[in-house]
Design goal:
single chain, alpha+beta, 2 domains, 10 helices, 45% helix, elongated
Length: 255
């Protein structure tokens, strides 16, 4: 018993909680994985990054009468499927990404995705039409990838996404940048500033409202028994993602 559908099957979408999704093994087969289940290792390794594009539904499968270990199926959104396609680096990854775009577009337009045709069974005119369609899909894919690639590169800068907040020094380490350089960038882009006569950085009000920064005030007791107020800027998980995109060369450092 094989663990994947026939290699001649077209990519199809499965409704999960009312949204169209692409099954992991279907995508693996089209990408040309020798062992389709290996795509789940790739998905798990990039799960935190995939979550930045939305929820990634996982469905547990029992071993059934055939024996073997229980497994988990993943159902990917369009952006998640394209991201995994890029990460797979298979020979036909680009063509499969074009097919992903076509299948999801067909769903949005209310048309059924057409199965792949065998060139030996079609006319010359049909081959020309297919070639024209493929070129249109390629151009559409390049436009889609131009939007997604900077986000994927930005997410790669975050080695361990945090569910909490980080101070500026730890945020710089996570973003793989010198802390002083990060502070200079934040100041130049008006993320942080100093009050007149103050020495501590404070978070800009608009960044607090956007949820990318938090401002922490801590009271400590000094050796002489007096209270000391310490202000600290913290970067949220949302802020890390935005900073990673800001630091991407593709975006030119725009805040």
């Amino acid at each position: 018993m094989t663990d994947h559908p026939p290699r001649t099957s077209a990519l199809v979408l499965t409704p999960i909680q009312g949204e169209p999704r692409m099954k992991d093994l279907d995508l693996a087969v089209r990408l040309g994985f020798e062992r389709p289940r290996k795509i789940r290792d790739l998905i798990k390794a990039n799960e935190d990054k995939l979550l930045k594009f939305g929820v990634c539904p996982a469905v547990g499968q029992t071993s059934g009468a055939q024996g073997g270990r229980p497994s988990t199926e993943f159902y990917l959104s369009q952006k998640q499927a394209i991201f995994i396609g890029m990460k797979s680096e298979t020979e036909n990854a680009f063509e499969v990404q074009a097919e992903i775009v076509r299948v999801f577009d067909a769903h949005v337009n209310g048309t059924l995705a057409q199965p792949s045709l065998n060139p030996a069974n079609v006319s010359r005119l049909q081959l020309i039409e297919l070639a024209m369609q493929a070129e249109q899909e390629r151009l559409a894919l390049e436009s889609t990838v131009a939007v997604i690639q900077p986000k994927a590169d930005a997410l790669d800068r975050i080695a361990t996404p945090s569910s909490g907040t980080l101070n500026l020094t730890n945020a710089a380490k996570t973003l793989q940048i010198n802390p002083r350089a990060l502070i200079q960038r934040l100041s130049a882009n008006r993320w942080i500033d100093r009050r007149a006569g103050g020495k501590n950085w404070t978070a800009s009000q608009d960044k607090l409202q956007q949820g990318v920064l938090e401002h922490k005030i801590t009271k400590t007791v000094q050796d002489d028994g007096t209270d000391r107020i310490v202000e600290q800027v913290l970067v949220t998980a949302k802020g890390l993602t935005k900073l990673a995109a800001m630091l991407s060369p593709v975006n030119g450092g725009a805040a």
